[in-house]
Write a structure and sequence with these properties.
The chain is an alpha+beta fold. It has five helices and nine strands; from the N terminus they run αβαβαβααββββββ. The chain has one domain.
Length: 191
């Protein structure tokens, strides 16, 4: 599940673009994509700083070979965890010049097959090698504005002792000023 959180962290900050960047790259590292987004934005910030509320919903999950009862219990457990929303604080410093790891964590084993962000739409495919356990591929399709974001993500984990496919939907919106009780987008923890 960590790759899913990393990618959501990648996409949510990009969510608030208005006129936004015009980026279209293929076979690029996470750092290269981050740099292209920064260059495209110029001196403008990519998104509105403040308090952002995000809700992620599990749409479906498929784990081949798992007994039906265990799969159903896992789906219910994951759905309960994802029923709640969380708040993130994006500060002025976060939005000025985000570093490459701001977009997808410190995972150097990920590359975008393609990353397109333009005209209020985002379309991306990411591949992460998780040695020795396998590969995670993810597609993201969604829309964004300066203060709102919505996307559907499809993840496919393969290798190791089996695989898993999962689809989720993420909605994020700016809801005001930071209060200090939100998750820090930069550190991934409280404060």
């Amino acid at each position: 599940m960590r790759p899913a959180f990393i990618l959501i962290a990648c996409v949510v900050p990009l969510s608030a673009c208005d006129k936004g960047p015009d980026v279209n790259v293929k076979n690029a590292s996470v750092g290269e994509v981050a740099e292209k987004v920064r260059q495209s934005a110029g001196s403008d910030t990519l998104f509105e700083p403040g308090k952002w509320q995000t809700k992620v919903s599990l749409l479906d999950i498929d784990i081949p070979g798992m007994p039906p009862q265990a799969a159903q219990q896992m789906k219910q457990t994951m759905a309960k965890v994802q029923e709640q929303s969380y708040d993130t604080c994006l500060t002025e410093a976060d939005v000025k010049l985000p570093k490459a790891d701001f977009f997808a964590g410190k995972n150097n084993d990920c590359r975008y097959d393609h990353f397109t962000m333009s005209g209020g739409k985002i379309d991306a495919a990411l591949r992460c090698e998780a040695k020795p356990s396998g590969t995670m591929t993810m597609t993201i399709n969604g829309t964004y504005s300066r203060d709102r974001y919505e996307a559907t993500m499809a993840m496919d984990f393969s290798g190791g002792e089996g695989g898993m496919k999962m689809r989720s939907h993420s909605e994020s919106r700016r809801i005001g000023q930071c209060t200090g009780s939100e998750i820090s987008a930069k550190r991934g923890g409280k404060g």
